[in-house]
Specification:
The structure holds 2 protein chains of 2 kinds.
Chain A: E1 14-16, E2 21-23, H1 25-42, E3 51-56, H2 60-71, E4 75-82, H3 86-102, E5 111-115, H4 116-120, H5 124-131, H6 135-153, E6 158-160, H7 165-177, H8 181-185, E7 190-191, E8 200-202, H9 210-219, H10 236-250, H11 254-267, H12 276-283, E9 285-286, E10 293-294, H13 300-313
Parallel strand pairs in A: 3-4, 3-6, 4-5, 6-8
Antiparallel strand pairs in A: 1-2, 7-8, 9-10
Helix pairs in contact in A: 1-9, 2-9, 5-6, 7-10, 7-11
Chain B: E1 2-5, E2 10-13, E3 18-19, H1 20-26, E4 34-38, E5 41-42, E6 48-49, E7 54-59
Parallel strand pairs in B: 1-7
Antiparallel strand pairs in B: 1-2, 3-6, 4-5, 4-7
The chains are: A alpha/beta, B mainly beta.
Bound molecules: iron/sulfur cluster (SF4) and zinc ion (ZN) (2 copies).
Chain lengths: 314, 64
């Protein structure tokens, strides 16, 4: 497979069926940066003067996001929350530290770290047990709180998270399956700052699939943690993503049409649709051959039968 | 060829030469959820993998 963009047709490192394209390393990096720039522009996420706080976990999405924002020339610091989940937290902390010291520092960006154990006296799993709450919901509350607090206290203009197309499509599927209408409203890639002291939130990777971001991390030699948080095992999100990926494999572009289509609908609410009964009244007339309702002069059935008869008579 | 897999971490030996997409199919893995890395370079699905290659199949799905 060769790059579909280079005149010299260099060997491609990735094929992107949903875009009918394949890219060499350089064209792929350009493609990713363009997709992020487009998302930032079309959802009015960032302006060049903004001070941005990126939530990093040590995983591919958040590290790639930090990297891309710095490469695009934004002023982006990062916040890492150490959850105290054994070797998973130790290793992810190390990877974030490594990126901060070896890459981000050169762009003048800094890393802020919050260690859950230092403030709460216990890691996230112990806390969840004490509080009789599921680990992931405890974790979510703590991360959201710390992220917002750091953003407000240190006067960042925008908080950015590494949510990608797969995350958003999977969440949308979950919300639609359960008709969680309130949550649907919160699925926009840009959430404005609200009065109660919440900073503006953006998701600049929402145009890129999880696989594209992982590939971007690999070609840029970003050292991220491949291992999953042990608490994520068996999560509903993973199941939704697997289902969507099976559909995507059969018909490339499914995830994108699903999520972007939703965003389009949200952006321009349609005029109330004509009711089905009204529409029927307006368009249906009796067939001139059999009298059944039809939108054409002669109904499709009668036309089919006429054709079949003339063919068998011949 | 030696193939490195994750979740859980393990290595398996697979006979080459073989196309990337056939390797994935035989292991029952979806392309959309994985990257295939030879040495430290990404390879596309139509690429031939040789017996002497060091391959990593890296899952890209995360559940957080
Ligand atoms: S899987 Fe659960 S515990 Fe682990 S980082 Fe995600 S939300 Fe937190
Ligand atoms: Zn190219
Ligand atoms: Zn008729």
């Amino acid at each position: 497979m060769n790059c579909t963009k280079c005149p010299t047709s260099t060997r491609a490192v990735i094929g992107l069926p949903r875009h009918n394209a394949a890219f060499c390393k350089n064209c792929f990096i350009t493609f990713v940066h363009e997709q992020v720039a487009r998302a930032i522009k079309s959802f009015k996420m960032l302006s060049p003067e903004d001070r941005i706080l990126v939530a990093v976990s040590g995983g591919k999405d958040s590290l790639a996001l930090w990297h891309i924002l710095l490469k695009l020339g934004y002023r982006a610091d990062a916040l890492y929350v150490n959850l105290g989940i054994g070797s998973y937290s130790e290793e992810s902390h190390r990877k974030v530290r490594h990126y901060a010291d070896n890459e981000a520092a050169a762009h003048g960006a800094k890393l802020i770290v919050h260690v859950v154990e230092q403030e709460a006296g216990a890691g996230i799993r112990e806390l969840a047990t004490i509080l009789h709450r599921p680990t992931c919901s405890t974790c979510g509350t703590i991360k959201r709180y710390q992220f917002n607090r750091a953003a407000i206290e240190q006067e960042y203009d925008v908080m950015a998270t590494g949510h990608n197309l797969d995350d958003e499509a999977a969440r949308l599927l979950g919300n639609v399956l359960h008709w969680q209408n309130d949550y649907l409203d919160k699925q926009s890639p840009t959430l404005p700052a609200s009065v109660e002291g919440f900073a503006k939130k953006v998701k600049p990777l929402c145009r890129l699939s999880e696989r594209e971001i992982a590939a971007y991390a690999v070609v840029n030699r970003l050292d991220y943690i491949v291992e999953e948080c042990p608490m994520a095992k068996g999560s509903k999100m993973i199941l939704y993503k697997e289902v969507l990926n099976r559909l995507e494999t059969e018909s490339p572009g499914t995830k994108q049409r699903f999520y972007w289509g939703f965003l389009d609908k949200q952006a321009k609410p349609e005029a109330p649709a004509e009711s089905m009964a009204d529409k029927d009244q307006r368009t249906l007339l009796p067939c001139d051959s059999c009298g059944q309702p039809t939108t054409a002069g002669t109904c499709t059935y009668c036309k089919m039968m006429a054709k079949a008869k003339s063919a068998t008579l011949r | 060829m030696l193939v490195q897999l994750s979740h859980p971490n393990r290595q398996i030996e697979v006979k080459g030469p073989k196309r990337t997409k056939d390797l994935l199919r035989e292991l029952n893995l979806v392309m959309e959820a994985h990257l295939v890395i030879r040495g430290d370079e990404l390879v596309t699905e139509d690429e031939w993998l040789a017996d002497a290659d060091q391959i990593e199949i890296r899952p890209v799905i995360s559940g957080g």
